[in-house]
Design a protein that fits this description.
Layout (H helix, E strand, L loop, with lengths): L1 E5 L3 H12 L3 E5 L3 H10 L2 E3 L2 H6 L6 E4 L5 H11 L7 E4 L5 H12 L4 E8 L4 H4 L2 E6 L1 H6 L1 H7 L5 E5 L3 H28 L9 H8 L8 H12 L15 H11 L5 H13 L5 H14 L15
Parallel strand pairs: 1-2, 1-4, 2-3, 4-5, 5-6, 7-8
Antiparallel strand pairs: 6-7
Length: about 300
């Protein structure tokens, strides 16, 4: 299939590469021309404006957005409304709030433009092992785009979750769970570090051990092992942990539906606290975010709290 990819950041670039390797044709656009040139070298067709990208696609056009949620998505979709035609398809693969999806679909419907929301997990490792895809929207459009999902995902790695908003909703809760898991690992390693045995233990070996048949084995522990091998006490980074919004939305959803979620809520508040003081537990969280998603880390705590 032929697809236009808007946004060549940590995720978008590697997703475009995986699509090319899977035999799809990609037209790539990024506001930074150097990223476009990099994708052209990889086999994509480059576009240096959104108008050019649309012109290089064949109806029904498929455009996949991998850009930050909120205003950037709104601005791009508003521009695309005037460029696309009835029957074209927009896929938002970022971490948009699911209620925004409902608004986008409602507004695009009058233009005859289809819309899918796709929650994507896999971070910087997705190029190699594939991306977990959580998909919402019109089922017929999902089925039409299924060859793309099969290429991006590993075996059994994509799921039609339901009508518009369902994909991003499931991804939102996924990220809330991620917050809780990371917090538990961080706390556990700090308890070990501060114990009488901590000075003599290699944390990378502990992480490796716990992945050998243990009930707490996980990919996050594999990443923790790698982070500790690079920096055994994580001394090169500050325990400053950002949040990108999904944890907040998950907690709010729990409040709205009266579902007790003490672990996820506490893990979100822990991230807020990490911006006021530093602990080894917070450094583990910061290291894990860098390992799985390429998220920035700080050598020292920033002077100002970063917004979500």
């Amino acid at each position: 299939m032929k697809i236009g990819m808007i946004g060549l950041g940590r995720m978008g670039m590697n997703m475009a590469r995986r699509l090319l390797k899977g035999g799809h044709k990609v037209v790539a656009y990024n506001r930074t021309p150097d990223r476009v040139k990099e994708m052209v070298k990889a086999g994509a067709r480059g576009a240096y404006s959104i108008e050019e990208l649309v012109k290089k696609l064949i109806p029904p056009r498929i455009i996949w957005l991998m850009i930050p949620a909120g205003r950037p998505v709104d601005e791009h979709i508003n521009l695309l409304k005037g460029l696309l035609r009835r029957g074209d398809i927009i896929v938002d693969g970022g971490n948009s709030f699911y209620k925004d999806d409902l608004r986008q679909k409602r507004e695009l419907k009058s233009f005859g433009i289809h819309y899918l929301d796709v929650g994507v997990s896999g971070g910087v490792w997705g190029l190699k092992i594939g991306y977990c895809l959580m998909i919402g929207g019109d089922k017929k459009i999902y089925q039409y785009l299924e060859p793309i999902f099969k290429t991006l995902a590993p075996k059994d790695g994509y799921l039609y979750c339901g009508e518009t908003g369902a994909g991003h909703f499931v991804k939102m809760v996924h990220n809330g769970i991620e917050y809780g898991m990371m917090a538990a690992y961080g706390e556990g390693f700090e308890i070990v570090k501060e114990s009488p045995f901590g000075k003599n233990l290699d944390f990378s070996k502990v992480a490796h051990l716990w992945n050998q048949g243990s009930v707490i084995r996980s990919w996050l522990l594999e990443l923790a092992e790698g982070a500790f091998k690079k920096d055994k006490n994580l001394s090169s980074m500050a325990g400053y942990v950002e949040d990108s919004g999904e944890g907040r939305w998950t907690v709010q959803q729990a409040i709205d539906t009266a579902v007790p979620a003490p672990v996820i809520t506490a893990s979100l508040f822990q991230r807020f606290r990490s911006r006021q003081e530093q602990t080894f537990s917070d450094k583990v969280l910061a290291a894990l975010r860098q390992e799985f998603g390429g998220h920035r880390v700080f050598k020292s705590k920033p002077k100002r709290n970063a917004p979500p």
